[in-house]
From TrEMBL:
Cofactor: Mg(2+)
The reaction(s) this protein catalyses: L-seryl-[protein] + ATP = O-phospho-L-seryl-[protein] + ADP + H(+); L-threonyl-[protein] + ATP = O-phospho-L-threonyl-[protein] + ADP + H(+)
Keywords recorded for this protein, A-Z: ATP-binding, Calcium, Kinase, Metal-binding, Nucleotide-binding, Repeat, Serine/threonine-protein kinase, Transferase
Tagged with keyword Lipid metabolism: no
SMART domains with a match to the protein in the record: S_TKc
A single GO molecular function term of this UniProt record: protein serine/threonine kinase activity
Protein kinase domain: residues covered: 23-197
The protein, known as: non-specific serine/threonine protein kinase
Length: 197
């Protein structure tokens, strides 16, 4: 199955051999201990995507990879990064995501401050905070705790980041699912568990 046939909140899209048949690499976005992220263009649609490749059998437990995929599949909010699908081969798990071309929030703030071209207004900050709070409230209403919210996990979708910021929260690898149960006397209990579906 081709990645282009996948709906935005799809389940597993199956292993794809020959990634180059489906994706054109535009540029490498980053590399870390767990894998790489590349900006790619989906050949069938021409749409830009981020292809995150996470090494299997490394320091990152397979459960954390599965958890991030399952949490993101369950969420549909304009301020939470979208996942378009995932697949794997013998060495990697691949996650196909929406690109956030505006960069990390902290990096954006530092660049704007150092360049002194634009001043970040209270209105700008209020928009960013409102969007973050909206996403977090959405998660909490569904019993999901992000547990790693920091400026590095908040990205701006657009390069037009000063005039009209649009932020998305990323990295749900350590998210946790809370469920509520009632005890024998009607008291409410919060139960913690994995966000795995």
């Amino acid at each position: 199955m081709q990645a282009s046939q996948v709906s935005p909140r799809s389940a597993r899209i199956g292993a794809i051999s020959g990634l180059e048949k489906h994706f054109e690499v535009i540029r490498k976005l980053g590399e870390g201990a767990f894998g790489t992220a590349q900006l790619v263009r989906e050949r069938a649609t021409g749409q830009p995507r981020v292809l995150k490749a996470v090494r299997k059998g490394g320091d990152l437990p397979a459960e954390a990879i599965a958890q991030e995929v399952n949490v993101l599949r369950a969420l549909d909010h304009p301020n939470i990064i979208r996942i378009f699908g995932h697949f794997e081969d013998d060495r990697f798990v691949y996650i196909l995501m929406e690109p956030a071309e505006g960069g990390e929030l902290l990096t954006v703030i530092k660049e704007i401050y150092e360049q002194r071209v634009h001043a970040l207004s209270e209105t700008w900050a209020a928009r960013v905070f409102q969007q973050c709070l909206s996403a977090i409230a959405y998660c909490h209403q569904r019993g999901i705790l992000h547990k790693d919210l920091k400026s590095e996990n908040i990205m701006l979708l657009s390069r037009d980041r000063v005039a009209s910021p649009h932020v998305v929260i990323i990295d749900f690898g350590v998210a946790e699912l809370l469920s509520t149960t009632r005890g024998p006397q009607g008291q409410t209990h919060r139960n913690r568990g994995s966000a795995l579906a």
